[in-house]
Amino acid sequence: MTENEKLSYGHWFNRAALVAALALNVAFMPFASPRAAAQVTLQVEAIDGLPGFHRADLSLYLAQHMAETRLADWRFEPAEGNGLASDRVEWTFKLNPYAGGEVRSFAHTLVHERRFGVQRPITIEARLYLNGEYQTLVEQQAIVRGGPDSPGLAAAVASATQNLLGPLGAYRAIDTGQRPASQAR
């Protein structure tokens, strides 16, 4: 073998070893997006109260049910303190009028719903803020029974979280310019 053939063979061997080493690195690297590595923690704030909840407990309830959606890019913590966090989701709840159009006081409604198990229509809004700047909003209608035991409320919170932050949600639609299936504003 000539000296040139030895150099050429050595050069080829070094390249093959480098390619093999890179292939092994890729094979054993965890499959995660760069965004998943930079998981964002959102403070969860309940702006309005909801029948059946103490105001302090509502943010914790919301954060727990948001976490159950298992969105890889996001962590959820109940808001603490009086200041607004720069990375947050603000939740508002509005009691919709009954079908008969009657208006009742909040306290009377709560007692009536707990005693008789009445289901109540509500409108839920979840607003996303990142770095202190408003990003997007989702709105959802739900039928709930007052209090934390309402499966309708838990499902509505999870659904609104997916519609806001999920792979096909309103926040992702901002990046791609597509309109999500949910009602985003």
Describe this structure in words.
It is a single chain. Helix 3 crosses helix 5. This protein has two domains: 31 residues; 144 residues. It has a five-stranded mixed sheet with strand order 2-1-3-4-5. Helix content is 41%, strand content 24%. It is α/β, with parallel strands linked by helices. The protein has six helices and five strands, in the order ααβαββαββαα.
Strand order of the largest sheet: 2-1-3-4-5
Content of β-strand: 15-25%
By secondary-structure content and strand pairing, the structural class works out as alpha/beta
Major sheet: size, sense and barrel closure? 5 strands, mixed
* Outline: elongated
Q: How many H/I helical runs?
A: 6
As an assembly, this protein is single chain
**Count of structural domains:** 2
Radius of gyration: 25 Å
Descriptors:
5 strands, disordered C terminus, 41% helix, alpha/beta, 2 domains, 185 residues
Helices and strands, with pairings:
Blueprint: H1 3-28, H2 34-37, E1 40-46, H3 55-67, E2 74-78, E3 88-95, H4 106-116, E4 119-130, E5 133-145, H5 151-165, H6 170-176
Parallel strand pairs: 1-2, 1-3
Antiparallel strand pairs: 3-4, 4-5
Helix pairs in contact: 3-5
